[in-house]
Amino acid sequence: MIKLLLDELHVSSVWNGGILLLAFFTIILYLFILPNGKNHTWWKSVVFIVGVAVAYIAIGSPLNIVARIQFSTHIIQLLLFFLVAPPLLIIGFKTEIIHRVMKFPIAKKIAQILTNPYFVFIIFLLAISLFHLPSVFDAGRMDIYVNYFYMFGLFFLAILFWIPVVTRIRLNQKQKIIYLGASMIALVPVSLFLMFSTDNLYQTYSDLGVFVEALEACFPPDEEPLPASFYETLLPNKPHMEQQLGGKILLIGEVIIFVITMILVSIIEPRLNRE
C-alpha cells in the first residue's frame, strides 16, 4: 500500500524540491565559492557530496513520506540524518574558511564553547530524547515548519556532536573512543524503552485523524487529498510493534555506527599522529 501511495502522489510530494534546491546550493557553494586549503584533496569533496546526498535521502526523498507512516522507517531516517551525514560533511568540509574565521577572537571563543565535548554530548543526546517525547514528537509532526525546525535544529547539534570525533582539536584517540562508547551507551535506554513499550506512544502512528493530518502536512497545498479509507489501510495495525521494531533498529544501527567509528579512530588516529 505504501508503494501505491507513492505512485498516487505528485512527484513534488514524494521528492521535496525545496530541500533538493538547498542541497544543490550547498554543493555549488562548497565547490565554487568556499576557498580551497593547502591540504584539501578531491576525495574530501567526494565525501562532502556523499554527505549532502545522505542528508537529502533522509529528509527530502520518499523515505521522508514513509517515515510518517512507519515509525521504524523514521528511526532509519534519524540514523542517516544525525549519525551518518554529519561526520561525512565534517570530514569533507573545506577548513580554510574556518581558519580565517577563527582569526577573530569572538568567533574562536564561541567555537570553543559550542564544540566542548561535554557540552555537545549532553545537549545532543538530551535533545534526541526530548524530541521523542510523545507530546513533542506529535506536535512536530502536525506542523511542517515546526518539524523542520526540530530536524534542522537537531542536525546542527549533530554537527557539533561529531566535531570532537572527526577533528583533532579537542580529543585524543583514547578520549574519542570513550566519547563514542559513552554516546552508544547513552542511546541504549531510548532503544530499550521503545523495544519494551506495549503502549501506543505516538498519536501520529495510532490515531487516524492525527495520522492523516501529519501525513498531509508534508504535501504541497495543491495536492489533492486522498480518501480517508485509503489512509486507513496505511495506518499500522499494531503501532506498538512498529515502535518495538524501531527500538531494535535504533539499537543495532547506533551500535554499528559507533563501533565502526571507534575502529576507524583506532586505525587512522595513530597514522595521523605519526605524520
From TrEMBL:
The organism's place on the tree of life at top rank: Bacteria
Keywords: Cell membrane, Membrane, Transmembrane, Transmembrane helix
GO annotations of cellular component type: plasma membrane
Membrane topology reported for the UniProt record: Multi-pass membrane protein
Main location: membrane
A Pfam family annotated for this UniProt entry: Caa3_CtaG
Record has Transmembrane helix as a keyword: yes
Transmembrane region(s): 14-34, 46-69, 75-93, 113-133, 145-165, 177-196, 249-268
Subcellular location: Cell membrane
UniProt-recorded name of the protein: Cytochrome c oxidase assembly factor CtaG
Biological source species: Cerasibacillus quisquiliarum
Source taxonomy: Bacteria, Bacillati, Bacillota, Bacilli, Bacillales
